[in-house]
Amino acid sequence: MGRTGLGEFEHQVLLVILRLGREAYSIPIGNELEERTGREAATSAVYVALRRLEKKGLLSSRLESPADSGQPYPRRYFALTEAAVEPLKEARRSMLNLWDGLEPVLDD
Amino acid sequence: MSDRPREEGPPRLARLLLRWVVPSSEIDVAEGELWEGFQVKSEREGKRAATTWYRRQVRGYVLRCLVVRRVTSVEREGTMGWFDDLGGDVRWAVRGLRKRPAFTFVAVATLALGIGANSAIFTLVSAHFFSALPYEQPDELVLVWETGRNTSEVRTVAPGNYWRWREDAASFSDIAAYNVDRATVSGDGFAEGITASVVTPHFFDVLGASPQVGGGFDETSARAADELQVILSHSLWVRRYGSDRGIIGRDIRVDGQPHTVVGVMPPSFRQPERSLSWQSTELWRPMLLEDERDVFTSRYLRTIARRSPGVTVEQAREEMLLLADRLRAEYPEANAGRSTIVRTLDDYLMGDARPTLMMLLAAGAAVLLIVCANVANLTLARGEERRREFAVRAALGSGGGRLVRQVLVEGLVLALLGALFGTLAVIGGGDVLQGIQARFFSGLIDIAVDWRVVALTTSVAFGAGTLFGLPLARSASRPRLREALVEGGERGGERSGANATRSVLIIGQVGMATTLLVLAALLSRSFNELVNVPPGFEPGGVVTFTVSPPSAGYADEDAVLGYHRDLRAEVEAIPGVTEIGMVSDLMFTTENRSTNFSIEGREHDPENPPNSEFHIASPEYFDVLGIPIRAGIVVEAIGDEAEAPVVVNERMAATFWPDGDALGAGLTLSSGLALRVAAVVGNVLDDGYQGVSEPIFYMPFNSMPSRRMSYLVRATGDLGPVTAGLREAVARVDPDIPAADLYLLESMMEETAARPRAASLIGSVFALIALLVSAAGIYGVLSYAVQSRTREIGIRAALGASDNQLMSMVMGHSTRLVLIGLVLGAIGAIGAGTALSGLLFGVRVWDPASMAGAAVLLGGVATFAAWLPARRAVAIDPKEALRAE
User: Fold this and answer.
1) How far apart are the C-alpha atoms of B36 and B54, rounded to whole Å?
2) Which residue has the higher pLDDT, B344 or A72?
3) Could you give the CA distance from residue B870 to residue B96 in angstroms, rounded to a whole number?
4) Do B64 and A27 touch (CB under 8 A)?
5) Which region holds residue B305: left if phi is over 0, alpha if psi is between -120 and 50, else beta?
6) Packing angle between helix B451-476 and helix B101-129, nearest 10 degrees?
7) Angle formed by the axes of helices B101-129 and B80-99, to 10°?
8) Contact B111, B375 (CB under 8 A)
9) Which of these, B785, B776, B796, lies nearest to B870 by C-alpha position?
C-alpha cells in the first residue's frame, strides 16, 4: 500500500470504530476485531494502531475519568474524524478493484 | 488509585513491566484496558487463562512500545512509513522463522558455521594487516642488513659499517644495533635459561618504547664498566620477581654475575622478532660498541632504523646503496662484493604469514559461498511452499517490490542471527584462536575481535543474506496469481525456473567443494612431502638440551672443558642413556657461524676467499645422530696437535674438492688455525625442512672448546625419567647453569614445520566443512524434488516402471549436476593451486592423485546424499502417491 494510504490493520480498526460508535474504546475494539476477522488482536497492537491513527489525524479521542464512568481506571474513547472518510473510501475502492472479476475464480 | 482491586488482579510482575514500557501519560488508560480484558477473560475462561493472556499482552506492549518509541522519533523526519514497514517486515520474518524451527535451526547453524569461520579468519587477518606493530610510528621502522659477498643473501652487520651508517645515512633519524642471545638468571630460586638480547642503549628510543617501571640504560655508568645493567621484560618481572617495583636498583644474578635492574618494559613491548612467542626476549643488556668503531672482520649485529620524516623507503634504500658503494671503496678488504638490504619492519615480521592468511581468506569465502548456496536452496524449497502466500499477499495489494523486500529481510534476519552466533563462537574460542596465532603465525601481535572484525562480519552477513535471498526474491517479484491459486500448488511437476536456479546452485556448491578438497589434498601432501624429506640423521629417541657455562666462574678454556667433562660423566651415569654427543649449533635452528679459510696448495682471490659454515662437535655427535660416515674416520682431537682433525660434509667435499680428494686435504682458517680433513660425512638438513644442505665442516670440540654447547643424548626406554635425570645432572654439576631448551629432538623439528602444518590442517578443516555442507545441500534439494514429484513417480510406478528405472530417473539428474560441478571444481582447483604454488613443497599444482581423491570422495558423498531420497521415492506406494493431491 502507498505510504499515505491505510495499512490493512488500520483499515480494519477504522471500520470497527465506525461500527461501535460511541462505545469505541480499546477493549470492545479488540473484541469486535476478533469477532469479525476471526483473529485475536493483541491489545498492544490495537493500542499502537489507535495512537498512530490519532497522530495521522484520522481519529480523535476523549478521556473519561474513573469518576465519570464508575470504573477503577480511566478509559480513552475514539471517534473517526472527517479526514478519515476519504482514505477509507479509497481503501475500499482499491480493494474492490483488486477483487474485480476474481470472485468466480475463488468460488470453485 | 487506592480503591483499585489488588488481590484478584493481574500478575504483578507483568504489571510492573507494563508501567515501565508505556509512556506515563498513557499508563492509566493502558493498564485499565488490560485490567478490563483480564476481568472478562477471568470470568469466561478462568484465572489461569486470564493470567496467561495478560502476560502475552504485556509482552506485546514491551515489543511494540520499545519499537514504536524509536519509530515515533524517526517520524518527525518524515521517514516513518518506511521504517514502520521495515519493522513490520522484521517482525513478520521473525514470526515466519519461529513457525519453522527445523528450517531456522539448520539455516542459522550452517550460516553460523560459514560466517563464524570467516569471522575467525578476519580476526587473524585484521591482526596481521591492520593492527599496528606495538611501536611508535611502526611504518617508519626498517631493518638494514649487509649482503653476503657477491650474493644478495642477508648477512648480519659489522660494527664498523654500523657506525658509518649511523653517522652518514641522512635517511634515518637513528639506527640501533642488537643481537639475540641466551642468558641464565639465577639466585632468587631456581636457575632459568631465557632469551636475552644485547642492544645499543638507544635501541628502545629508536623503537619509541620506554620502560614502564624505572628508566633506560645509563650509558655513562654502564661505560664505567663497574655496573652491569639489565632491563627486564614484563613477563620475567611478573614471573620471577612477583611484580616487585622495588626491583629497580637491585642486583640480580645473570650468567653468574650481579647485574643492576634499571627498568621493566611494559607488557605490550616485544622485541621485533619473527620467532614465535616461546622465544621472546625477556632481558636486555646494553651493548657498547664505542670500542668497535673499526671492527669490520666480525659481523654479528642486526640493525633497526627509523626513517626521517618525509623519507620514503625507496629513498632510504637508494641512499644505503650509495653508502655501500662508498664503504666498498673505503674498506675493500671488509666490504668487497657486499651491498645493503633495507626492508620495512612490517614486511619482515608479517610478510611470510600473509600468503597463508590470504589462502585462509579465500578458503573461508569459498565455504561461505557454499553455505549461501545451501541456504538459498533451503529458502527456495520453502519458497515453493510459500508461492500461494505470496500470490495472496500480492492480490491483497502487496507490490512486487514489497514482497522482494520481505524475502530479503527474512534472509538478512537469518544471516544476522548466523553472524551473531558465529561471532559469539569466535569470541568464546578467543583463547584457541590466540593459540593458533601464537603457534603458527606471530608471537608479536595479539588478536582481538575488534570493530573491524565485527564490521566485516556484519557486512559479510548482509552480503550473504542478500545473496541467498536473491533467488527466492526473484521468484517472489513475479508472483503468478492465477497459477498459484488455481492450479492447487502444482504438485505434479516443478516449475522450470526455480528448478534451473537450484541446479545452478548445486553445481556451484559441488564445484567449490571440489576446489577446496583438491587444495586441501595438495596442502596435506605438500606438508607430508616437507616433513618426510630425509633429514640426514635419526632424530628418534634423542633428547637435546643446551648449556652455557658463563665466563664468570669459567674464565678459561680449561674450565669450560672441565665443565663439559664433568657434565658428560654425570649424564653417562643416567640409566637408559646409551650415547652422548655435543654440537655448538643444533640443526633446525638458524644459528650458524661461518668463517673464511684457505686450502693448502691453492691460490685464493683475497677479495673472495673460500667461506663455509662450521659447527663445533664432539666425535660421538655423528654416531648419536646416525649421520653416515662416507670416508675416513672421525677421530678424537687431543686439543694441541699442529693440525686439528676436521670433518667435512659431502656438500663441502663436492664444492671444494670436486675431484674427490677431500680426505687428507689441509685447510687454514682465517684465525690461523690449521686443520686436516679426517672424514667426510653425509649432509644433514641444517636449517630446517625448507633449507638446503650447505657446505659445513665440523671442528673438534677439544681444539676449539665452546662455552655454549647443545647435548644430544640417545636413550632407550621411557624418555620421561631420562629427561628428568638430565635436568638433575645439569644442576648437580653447577646449580647456576640450567639445562636450556630441553626437548625431544623430534618435537623440536616439528615446531619448525608449524606454518605448513597450519596451512594443511586448516585447509583440511575447511574442506571437511565444505564437503559436509554441500552433501547436506544435495540431500535437501533432492529430498524436496522427490517429495514434489511423488505423484509423478507414483504414476510411473503404476504404469509399470521398474525400481531401477525410477531410481535412475531420480538420481540421473543429480548425477549430471554433480559431474558438471566436479569438472568445474577441478578447473578452479588448478587456478587456485597456481595462486598457492608458493605454499606448496614437492607437489605439482596439477596433481592427479589429489584431484582423483577429491573427485572420488565428493562424488561418493554426493551419490549417497542423492541415493537416500531416491530410495524413498522407489518405496512409494503408487496408490498413496496418486492420492497425494
Assistant:
1) 10
2) B344
3) 30
4) no
5) beta
6) 140
7) 120
8) yes
9) B785
Contact (CB<8Å) B482/A105: yes
Q: Is the pTM of this model over 0.80?
A: no
Radius of gyration of chain B (CA): 37
Angle at CA of residue A93, ends A92 and A98, nearest 5°: 100
Higher-confidence residue: B792 or B249? B249
Residue type, B582: M
Q: Give the number of other Cβ atoms within 10 Å of residue B151's Cβ.
A: 11
What number is the average pLDDT over the span B526-553?
81
**Chain B environment of A23 (Cβ under 8 Å):** none
Q: What is the pLDDT of residues A40-78, one digit of tens each?
A: 888 888 888 888 888 888 899 888 887 777 778 888 889
* Phi, psi dihedral angles at B721 (to 5 degrees): -60, -30
CA distance A44 to B567: 85
Cell for B783? 529430498
d(C-alpha B588, C-alpha B693), whole Å: 12
Q: Is the dihedral of CA B210, B213, B219, B223 positive or negative?
A: negative
Q: Can you tell me the distance from the alpha carbon of B305 to that of B199, in angstroms, rounded to the nearest whole number?
A: 13
Q: What are phi and psi of B849, to 5 degrees?
A: -65, -45
Cell of B449: 575481535
Contacts of B131 (CB under 8 A, 6+ apart): B445, B448
Residues of B in contact with A11 (CB under 8 A): none
- Half-sphere exposure of residue B93, counting CA atoms within 13 Å on the CB side? 24
**What is the rounded end-to-end Cα distance, in angstroms, of chain B?**
61
Least confident of B18-27, B44-53, B214-223, B782-791: B782-791
Q: What is the ipTM of this complex?
A: 0.86
Instruction: Please give the Cα distance from B64 to B41 (Å, whole number).
Output: 22
Confidence category of residue B68, pLDDT binned at 50, 70, 90: low
* Residue in B602, B561, B515, B362 with CA at minimum distance from that of residue B823: B515
Q: Do A44 and B63 touch (CB under 8 A)?
A: yes
The answer to whether the CB atoms of A48 and B68 lie below 8 A apart is: yes
C-alpha cell, B479: 508472483
- Please give, rounded to a whole number of angstroms, the shortest distance from the CA of B133 to a CA of chain A: 53
CA B91 – CA B519 distance, rounded (Å)? 43
pLDDT digits (tens, 9 = 90+) for B391-416: 766 666 566 666 777 778 888 888 88
Q: Is A25 on the interface with B (CB under 8 A)?
A: yes
